Amino acid sequence: MKKFVSVILILTLLLAVILTGCGGQQTSNEASTPSSEGSDAAGTAKFKVGILAPAVTHGWVAAVAYHAEARAKELSDQIEYKIQTSNNAEEMTAQLDDLMTWGAQAIVAFPQWEGMEEPIKKALDAGIKVVNFDIVIDVDGVYRVSGDNEDMGIQGAKYIVDKIGKEGTVVILEVPTSGSVSELRKKGFVETVAKIAPDLKLLTYATKFTREDGLKDFADILTSNPKIDAVFSMDDETSIGVLQAIREAGRTDIKVVTGGGGMQEYFKMMPENEDIWIQSALYSPAMVRDAIDVAVKLLNGEEVPKVTIIPTTVVDRTNYKDFLDPNSPY
User: Fold this and answer.
1) How many whole angstroms from its chain centre is CA 18?
2) 84 strand-pairing partners
3) Do 256 and 153 sit in the same domain of this protein?
4) Total domain count for the chain?
5) Domain that holds residue 303
6) Domain check: are 163 and 275 in the same one?
């Protein structure tokens, strides 16, 4: 009898040990659930996308960073992202290396300076998808999303000729430091004028995409040119400076000032002065959203055109209300 009881006790203890072991294994499984960082709710790994932009020296550039982050957040179920801003090519190169070390699978870059060809080629050679925003760069394998810079010049020429006719003096404000942006806008303007109004007198001056430079440089231009009929400015910020210089000089001869970019402050100036046609070739910083979308499509294995061009829209006092956006940072 005692022997039978002992066997029962041994079996009971063995069963307890087995049940305890099962419970411990369950606890271990619960503790090993993957972290949600770098994954979506289902535990699927997210793509890593790096975004490189210039430091904010211009309202348009600030809006690029704003729209880039907004779109990246909207895609947070699909991507992890890092946004870096830089002041020159050397700094952007270092940040590109950091993104590669981080494990970026795609990089959306806004390389405003010369000397970025080799660093971008290095990223491509490492198998990283590169989508350039706005800037043309001579590297095979790069995708690009930009506005139609040449068409902005074409539309500017047509607009000026429509307002002042086929004779007169037009000042072209180019920005050589902006590379292909200024080159293409000037090309479109000059070639179109040669076709539709070859008797226009064109004067070219260099400036920058800031209202301070627009004011300073155009004040000098006004001093040396007693008669100007129109100004082909390539940027809304520059144009605001130009308009201030015209106002301070008391000049009444200028009938057209163009611009570009899509700046809310500039839009609101359009109906204020009936003596000057103020125009902007819309070149929205929100295009960077399309660049991020292209990067995600590439990572998903989708077919994407090498170049995506956003069409030009002309804004002036006749339609500016359609483009007012109280939430825009630019």
Assistant:
1) 62
2) 52
3) yes
4) 2
5) 47-146+285-310
6) yes
Residues 171/221, Cβ–Cβ less than 8 Å: yes
CA 239 vs CA 62, 138, 164, 233, 286: distances in Å: 18, 30, 18, 6, 21
Using the predicted structure, report yes or no on whether residue 181 has a pLDDT greater than 50: yes
pLDDT digits over 97-126, tens only? 999 999 999 999 988 777 889 999 999 999
Stated pTM of the model: 0.69
Residue 165 falls within a domain, yes or no?
A: yes
The fraction of the chain above a pLDDT of 90, given in percent, is: 63
pLDDT digits (tens, 9 = 90+) for 187-225: 999 999 999 999 999 999 999 999 999 999 999 999 999
Residue 271 lies in a domain: yes
Q: Verify that 231 and 290 share a domain, yes or no.
A: no
- Co-location of 258 and 304 in the same domain: no
Nearby residues of 205 by Cβ (< 8 Å), 6 or more positions away: 171, 172, 173, 174, 217, 221
DSSP assignment of 208-233: -SSHHHHHHHHHHHHHH-S---EEEE
| Half-sphere exposure in the Cβ direction for 228 (13 Å, CA) | 28
Whether the Cβ atoms of residue 170 and residue 161 lie closer than 8 Å to each other = no
End-to-end CA distance of the chain: 93
- Interhelix angle 236-249/211-224, rounded to 10 degrees, is 40
Regarding whether 253 and 163 lie in a shared domain, the answer is yes
Q: Would residue 173 count as lying in a domain?
A: yes
Give the pLDDT score at 198: 98
Question: Mean of the per-residue pLDDT values for the chain?
Answer: 85
CATH code assigned at 177: 3.40.50.2300
Mean of pLDDT values over 257-263: 91
Q: Is the model's pLDDT at 23 over the cut of 60?
A: no
DSSP letter at 88?
S
Q: In degrees to the nearest 10, what's the CA dihedral of 212, 213, 216, 221?
A: -140
Measured from the Cβ of residue 62, the count of other Cβ atoms closer than 10 Å reads: 17
